[in-house]
Structure formats: C-alpha cells, structure tokens
Specification:
Layout lengths: L7 H24 L5 H30 L9 H8 L2 H17 L10 H6 L1 H6 L5 H30 L6 H29 L12 H26 L8 H32 L2 H13 L1 H19 L8 H35 L8 H15 L6 H4 L9 H22 L12 H5 L4
C-alpha cells in the first residue's frame, strides 16, 4: 500500500501546463478587443467544466455510499480528491462575479444595463437573472458543496485510523451523503441555469440541467479512467483491476447514451414545437457552427458507442484510454458550443450598440441576420468565421490545458494527504475481490 507523493517531475509538467494556460490567457486578453469576449468566455468555459467535474464526483460518491456500493472502494480516494477542487472552483467563479460588478466582461446579456432597460423579456427574468442572485447562489451553493466535500472526506479518512471497523463512523458517512444528494441535485440545476443557460438569456430548456450534468459525469468518468491507468503505470492503485476498468467502461458507454438521449430530446421537442424563442438556440448552432454541432454528436455518441459496444473492448487498456480521451475532449467541446454562441451574440449587441430589444422578435431578427450572413450553402461562412468562437483555436486548447494542469495538480496534492487504499472502509475486501 504505497503512499502517493507528487514528484518533482510531475510538478514540473503540471506547472508547465499551467504556464501554457496562463500564457494563452494573457495573449487572449491582449489580442481581444475592449470587451474581451474571447478571454472571458474561455475563462468561464473551463471554470464551469472543471468545477462541475468536482461536483459530480462528490454526487456520485454520495450515491455510492447510500446505495451500499463497494466495487469503487479501491479507487474512491481519487474521487474524494476531485471533490476538494470545489474550493478552487469557488475562487474561479468569484472572479467571474467580480467581473459582473466591475463591468469587466459582458458574458451575460442580462447584466448590460442598456439592454435590460429596453428588453421586456430580460426585465421579466430580472428577478432571477441579476448580479446579486448570481453572486449569492454561486458563493452560497458552491460553499455548501465544499462543506459537504470536506466533511465526507474527513469521515472517510478517519476510518483509516481506527483499529476496528466503526459502525458509527460509517453511519455518519451515509447520513452526510444522504443529506447532500437532494441538496446537490436541486442546487446544481440553479447554478447550471445561471452559469450556462443564462448566457442565452432569451432561451430556456427544462432538460438543460440534466443535459449539462450528464456531460459533467461522462467527463469525470473518462478522466478517472485516464488517471487510474497513469497511476497504475507508476505502481499505485495496485488493487484496481481490469474488472474495475470494465465497470468504468460500462458507465462511460451507458451515460454517453444517456447524454445522447437528452441531446435528442431537447432538439426533437424544440424542433417539433417550432416555437421561435426555443428553436433559435438550435437554429443558430446548426447554421453558424455546423462543424461543432454535428461533430460533437459524433465524438460524444457515435465513437464511444461503437468503440465500447463490445464487451471485451472495455477490458483493453488501449481502447479504454482512447475512448476516454475522445469523450473527455468531446464534452469540453460541448461546453464550448453551449457558451460561445451566446457570448458572441451578447458581444454583437453590446459592442454594436444594439440595445433596442423591445421584444423577442427583435432578438430573433438579430440572430436571423447572423444566420443570413452565413449563407444558405455555407460558402459565405468564412465571412462570419471568428477564431475562438466558430471553432476553438490554439489559445482555447492552451487555456484548457492550463486549467487541466491546475485541476490535476490540486488532485495530486490531495492524494498525497491520505492513504490511497482506504483500509478502514468496510467494503474494501469486496472491492479488492471484484469480478464481472
């Protein structure tokens, strides 16, 4: 049972990643215009993406505890380490909040005073979509998440120091987990609405919170597979076997299908309803961002479906690593597509002085104009192409690499603070002898 300690080489590599990310952010800041939509949207995408991975790790851990699940016990310390990143996520989102009040960015149309004054629809939503609610709910909810994450991890680690199994400690762990699940489930939806869906303030979807959470979950599972394979090459997590990877592969396969079900449900119902304020979301992405719109469906459904469909592929290292890399990047691209078009639209409105949104019809007219400019056959897409928005560029991928380095560095530090093998967990024996 080796104790993990982050090596100087690992620190150098991860600091290198963070350096690349910081450099890309700096370059983006200075090449952007005065409103800096590319810089702030890159910051928002990665902050939400990795904070969400941390949250969903906590949620799944709690679900496993109260479901008496034991197969994941040998690597649960990795998920516990994920959860501790919530404190970093809180700081990252606090930076977004400072930008809201300081007028440093225009990520959200509802935060522009001139637009709000002339837009009746935004005025109708202003009771929820305002900087005060955004601040209170973000700081309050993520703070509560982190409180639960700290408490649950502390109880889990405390089991290791007990010479005999303590039913009292484990029952406390289950009670705290049971308490978090409804809190996490309901509050996460509110933050998804605020952080991401309100970027397109004139649009809404009742499935959106489920859709985003599924994307977080598949990303978290894919990163788990990649890190477990990496650590096993270093001699850690020796009790993690091909059977554990097999189960992780089934989860990635299953929830990739669930994500696709939600994608299709949103698209099909909105398309069939043909309601202007709803269809405009997909119409914009289909016509102006076709490579991402269709590419994401291929990357996040078609490829993992056929790669992981066979039972034996989930037991092959190369296949699992390849599938995990594909879906991890694919779901980051999903967040890119969820956020970038709305930010670009707000930029055109604010920078272009287009504050005259008296109604939804004006909003549709603006988007229709952008779609028209793109051209029916795609030949004119070049005229509307904007690097960092139409598709991610080197600066976007570099920023993503920097945030990934920050996330991994924090996780590695947390892994060094506890035994990788939770020797006090009553389900350890079951997990060590897990077979499928």
């Amino acid at each position: 049972m080796k104790q993990f300690e982050i090596s100087s080489k690992q620190k150098s590599v991860l600091f290198g990643f963070m350096g690349v990310g910081l450099l890309c952010l700096i370059i983006t800041f200075f090449i952007d215009d005065a409103y800096r939509p590319r810089f702030w949207s890159n910051f928002l995408i990665n902050s939400v993406f990795f904070t969400g991975i941390s949250f969903i790790a906590l949620f799944i851990l709690c679900a496993k505890f109260i479901a008496y699940s034991g197969w994941q016990t040998v690597f649960k310390r990795l998920w516990e380490a994920y959860t501790q990143f919530l404190i970093v996520g809180l700081i990252l989102m606090a930076i977004i909040i400072v930008g809201l009040f300081g007028g440093f960015h225009h990520l959200y149309h509802w935060n522009d005073a001139a637009s709000l004054a002339s837009d009746t629809l935004l005025q109708g939503k202003s009771g929820f979509l305002n900087a005060g609610v955004y601040t209170v709910l973000t700081l309050g909810i993520v703070g509560v998440w982190y409180f639960f994450a700290r408490k649950i991890r502390a109880l889990s680690i405390s089991e290791d120091g007990q010479t005999t199994f303590s039913r009292i400690t484990h029952q406390k762990l289950k009670k705290w987990s049971a308490g978090f699940l409804p809190i996490g489930g309901f509050t996460s939806a509110a933050l998804v609405w605020l952080w991401i869906m309100s970027v397109d303030a004139h649009w809404y979807s009742t499935l959106y919170a489920w859709y985003v959470t599924a994307s977080w979950l598949v990303s978290m599972l894919a990163l788990t597979v990649l890190l477990l394979h990496y650590f096993k090459t270093l001699g850690y997590f020796e009790y993690v076997t091909v059977d554990h990877f097999h189960d992780l592969g089934k989860y990635i396969f299953g929830f990739s299908i669930f994500w696709t079900y939600l994608w299709f449900s949103q698209f099909m119902l909105i398309w069939y309803g043909n309601v202007g304020e709803e269809t405009i979301y997909f119409k914009t992405r289909q016509d102006l961002y076709p490579a991402l719109f269709y590419g994401i469906l291929i990357i996040n459904f078609v490829l993992p479906f056929f790669i992981l469909l066979r039972n034996d592929t989930k037991r092959k290292t190369g296949t699992m690593v390849a599938a995990s890399v594909i879906v991890f990047i694919g779901h980051w691209l999903d967040f890119f597509l969820m956020i970038k078009p709305g930010v670009l639209h707000t930029y055109h409105e604010v920078a272009g002085g287009g504050h005259g949104h008296a109604s939804m019809n004006a909003d549709q007219s603006m988007t229709a104009k952008l779609i028209s400019d793109a051209g029916a056959h795609g030949a004119e897409h070049a005229s509307t192409f904007q690097m960092g928005f139409t598709i991610p560029g080197f600066l976007e991928f570099g920023t993503f690499l920097g945030f990934l380095g920050l996330f991994l560095y924090f996780v590695f530090i947390q892994l060094g603070k506890a035994n990788l093998v939770p020797k006090g967990d009553p389900y350890l024996g079951e997990s060590m002898n897990h077979h499928v």
